[in-house]
MYND-type domain-containing protein
Amino acid sequence: MTSKELELQKRKTYLQISGTACSNCRKTSRDVGVESLFRCSRCRMSAYCSKSCQKEDFSNHKHFCAAVEELHNFEEAWYSCNEESEWNKRQIYHMQLLSAPLDRELSSYERNAWLYQPKCHVCFRTSKDLQNYQPLIPCSQCLIIFCCSQEHWTQHREKHQTLCKTYQLMINCERIRYQDTSETLWAPEEWDESAIYPPLPKDWNGYFKWRKNSQFIQLDTLCRVITNSLSLPLTILSALERFYTRHNLRSLEEMVIHIIGASQYEILALMTFEEIMHVLPNIKILRIILIGLEMPQQNSGIPLSCCSRCTEANRKRICAFYPMSYHEYGHSSNYTTPHITVGFNIELEENTELWEPTIEFLLEKEVPCILTSYSKEEAIQDVKILKSWGTKILVGAKENKWGSTMPLLEPQKVDKFYHNNFFKTLFQGRS
Ligand SMILES: [Zn+2]
Ligand SMILES: [Zn+2]
Ligand SMILES: [Zn+2]
Ligand SMILES: [Zn+2]
Ligand SMILES: [Zn+2]
């Protein structure tokens, strides 16, 4: 298996977390033609289609499984909570209890499995809260939303009816994302050469039209999945338009981009950064530097392959990884001044202290910067924090038209969806 496949294997889909799909092979009971999947008898969380799948998943699963079993046996932890805020509190408490026997923080996959676990959408009880682990009843259409009884479904049905379509869209997007193990979902090598950018087209539809890909003109499921990764280079391009003149952008031969707080999201979408060279074909060398604690081993420059048109035109794409904080990188000998620094969904408002030295550094260097966030509320918070540090804001908490159109589910809210890079804030230096 390639490292990307291994990474995808560790990640669990919404269907897997809800127990509707096998925790190992991702097939549903319908896919394998069995009545229903069976649950791991210890943790009662992971579901499997067969004994062999359970066996294959065991090494991934065993430590978390044992921790969950221990938590199930700790009856006091299962006090009843029948409203959203209490449920959230209990979830956080449970995650603390789970990390004790593991002797480490939960991985992001384990956190997700816990936070998205099935619960009744009316009374917030899990199967463990019911007698004898009585199974919850799934919505027959999306299969990932549950109620504990028909009575609670009667109460919840109407509210769910309006959201069920979005849940289904989310699951369908996920299916495409997890099936695709090829390098990227986006590589059509055609575009309308009579149109010169910047400026960028006015929206995603215009963009897909420029790229001559008629199949993407409607915002269908596949298209939404693609916008989730294309959102990264397009958001950068739109920010560059704000910081540099068109003439300037069209004449650049080398471009350096720093991505701060980089995570799996950027790594999985890495191939799509080539799009910057398609929009600005004068660029001969594109350097993408990913800096963040989640980055793999330090590497100061790996050449990535390009599409045939870029290869012919002798364009090169180089990528580097620095597993450290940005200010640490900034003070190292590897630092080179970027044309732009980007932080995708870095949640400044949640980790303010952690980010302060990084932002200080960026303000000092007067680097053009863009931060994106999942929601307007977060973006407004970001602007407030940045202003308190004396930042000169150029665009504050504005909706990003190059945000992802793929819905994702908020882990600690009920029925709330979010999109990557939905809002943006641009700044440079101090005011
Ligand atoms: Zn299976
Ligand atoms: Zn288990
Ligand atoms: Zn209920
Ligand atoms: Zn549904
Ligand atoms: Zn190319």
User: Anything to note?
Assistant: DSSP finds 16 helices and 14 strands in the chain. Residues 139, 141-142, 145, 160, 164, 167 surround zinc ion (ligand 4) (CB under 6 Å).
